[in-house]
Amino acid sequence: MNSLFIRDVLNMQDSTEIVLHGWVKGKRHYKNVIFIDLTDSTGNIQIVVDGSHLTKETFESFKGIGCESAVEITGVYHIKNIRDQQDANIEARSLKIISAVFKHIYPNPRSDFDIFNPGLSDHLLKNRHLYIRNPQIMAILRFRHMLMSFMRDWFNQNGFIEINAPILTSVPLYEDDSALSLDINGDKVFLTQCVGYYLEAAAQAFDRVYNMGPSFRGEESHSKRHLMEYWHIKAELTFGGREDIMVLIEDIIKYLTQRCIENTREILKPLGREICQDGLNPPYPRLSYEEAVIYLQKQGVDMQYGKSLGSQDEEILSKLYKSPFWVVGIPRTVEPFPYCIDQQDERVTMVADLIASNGYGELLGVAEKISDIAMLDARMKEKGRLGDPRYKWVREVHQSGCVPHIAFGMGVERLIRWLLNIPHVRDAIAFPRTFRRHVYP
After folding, report:
1. 3.40.50.2300, 3.90.580.10, 3.40.50.300, 2.40.50.140: which CATH number matches 6-99?
2. What is residue 78's predicted lDDT score, i.e. its pLDDT?
3. Domain residues of the chain, as ranges?
4. Strand 286-288 vs strand 33-40: parallel, antiparallel, or unpaired?
5. Is the predicted pLDDT of residue 86 greater than 70, yes or no?
6. Mean pLDDT across 57-67
7. I want to staple 271 with a disulfide (CB 3.0 to 4.6 A). Which of 121, 139, 200, 358 is the partner?
8. 161 near 206, Cβ under 8 Å?
9. Neighbours of 135 (CB within 10 A)
10. Does residue 82 register a pLDDT over 80?
11. Does pLDDT of 56 surpass 80?
């Protein structure tokens, strides 16, 4: 087990003898001196190899190592300036090659290049297993780790229980052909699109429940905010209405933004980006779906009432606001059956979508969910689901003391993309699964 990291070395006294493990990030050779940039998961440090202090054999071993080689360095830690421990190096005494490099790839994974360059995107995706070492990609993934930790903190502070819902399900949320299916023991089952059916069952026991896990999309899309496999933050609460869940989401977005600003500035340095602060000042503006349609039509968009808002539509609408904003009252024609109908306007559901600022599109959706079995049956009939034996257990939940409940679902990669101002959701996950690409690596 490795017990000494570069961050530990940087806190040591001058002239300390050490043994350090890491990877060769870069190497420069000047006459009888070699400078090696050594890196590990905690930082970087310069190794100085002075040939006048080493045997010829040892010096030649340093000369021969390639970038990305894993090495063990024995040497002496020196601080050039006591007030600045970053101005430090290790004077090498010996080298042990732990793992040499036999596959060379360009650009070097740890080198300084633009990971968002469209001309490199295909190459980086094909070689994601190697480029995950890139400092910018590492920064995004560290940010993701911390963001999800902050989200768990919020759930824990607000009385939620985590429910590990299944990934395999017989009940798709939308049409069957919009989900990824497979055969298990002769039964057609699906990779989950949404764990809402399972969370609403659990909510009848625990009142406040959440799930953080993968979801899958079978319906092809090539927008910058869609993946075939993505991560969902889902939650359900009993005894609430749409207004309650909207206020709760505004609190979450503000909380997450503040925590990220306070705690992630250092890890984002390789990325050269600041956290988007547009969500710090709720309440967020509200726009009815009907108002959105009318505005888009005035802008020359071929948009008809009853259609879903597309990425370009949301980008146009986002120019109206400097913060995230709500689109309220989504038509019943485009929403699945579990969501309540607005009793004031039966054309629409008690659903609202939160649209990100700066053209980044929909972040999440919230809804009042149906608890009454008669309303559920009416909506299931409307959507062609009534009598479908796969939904028998969903109906049984609603026949067994089901109380009014509310829910939200938020895409992790979408949230990261917006907060970090990065081009595509594929940049926000370790190993992206995008449409029309082989599942590789």
Report:
1. 2.40.50.140
2. 92
3. 6-99, 125-428
4. unpaired
5. no
6. 90
7. 139
8. yes
9. 17
10. no
11. yes
Q: pLDDT digits over 19-48, tens only? A: 999 999 999 998 899 999 999 999 999 999
- The CATH number given to 125-428 is 3.30.930.10
- Do 100 and 66 meet the contact criterion of CB atoms below 8 Å apart? yes
Number of residues in the chain? 441
Mean pLDDT across the chain, nearest whole number? 95
Tokens standing for 288? Answer: 């009815």
pTM, 2 dp: 0.95
Tokens linked to 83: 């007030």
Distance (Å, rounded) from C-alpha 233 to C-alpha 411? Answer: 6
